[in-house]
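Morning!

This is the sequence you dropped in the shared folder:
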Amino acid sequence: MAFFQKLKTKLFKSSSRIDEGLESIVEDGGAVESPETIDEVPVDDVMDRPEAATRALPEAVDDEPAPLPADEADTPEPVSLRETMTPIVSDMEAPAPAKPGLMGRMLGRGTAQPVVRRALDDEMLEQLEELLISTDMGVDTALRVTANMAEGRFGKRLSVEEIKRLMATEIARIMDPIAKPLPLYSKTPQVVLVVGVNGSGKTTTIGKLASQFKAAGKHVVIAAGDTFRAAAVEQLQVWGDRAGVKVLTAAQGSDPASLAFDAMGQAQRDGADLLLIDTAGRLQNRGDLMEELAKIVRVIRKKDETAPHNTLLVLDATTGQNALNQVKVFQDISDVSGLVMTKLDGTAKGGVLVALADKFGLPIHAIGVGEQIDDLQPFDPQEFADALVGLDQS
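The structure's back. Tokens below.
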């Protein structure tokens, strides 16, 4: 099954909420009309209207992490997971031809059917804002999306399908700048520190990344830095055995900073391309645990002052708006360079990912919708936006 179809299926909670909400909104004050060509600005033209993205609304925080202090000769352009994981990507990029949907029939590509449309007015915009806020998109981001949807279309009569397409286009516009692959550098070993709170999916994400990079020909080493939880070490060892990747461990309860230091030395001796360091789950309101994470960063910089070269924050989508608080705290402690969002299949509030993109501007490297290795994929803004609103991929 193509990843988009799996994403759409597993995001059913978010998409069904938007589906049901839009149908209710349009039917409330709408009227049945015969199909006709849409008379407002075509959806496809939205991306060509830069003024639509500039609104008198709260601006998103667009400060991006400073470039890593590595030599230019050692920092080539980022390499996309899509380029290195051909077997996984080929399935996603070659979906079966889709049958004409409702929009196609409305535009004359099939049997004409009556459709309900409602004029886009202030009341309808408020209802759309409330619907988006209910998916944890946040007030500022919801206002931005609906304001851009209304640009040039205020007073026009729109159907549910037309609104979905407009909504997906505006969501994808917000997320497109931050859909970036995990950068890979020629300097080795490249140290990737993986952080997050308890239960966010850090250990599983590390296992999937290690397996995928190993399959792409990279020499990978894992450091099981969650020395307080035996299950985390065992889980990484299972992934390591499956992928043929060395997993470095220490006695339970030992100092994770010491393990990270030793792991860097081992990765250098082994000639590894990537060293993935797991860390214990941190509660962002526990100062002692956060200080321990800061210690890990200080210690590994004794081996390489430019390390960690990537700090990935793994977020659980089911935490909703609390994910924004987590990003802020972890950014202060460990200089987060990118995000991975997991468990999108378990929430009706996938809109939080849009709020994160709008507020922080941090790269989103991958998203996860399940436990299988191919359930962690590079982030595609348009596919995500389509799945979030329950729109068929054209």
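Headline: Residues 15 and 388 are 5 Å apart (CA to CA).

More detail when I'm at my desk.
O.
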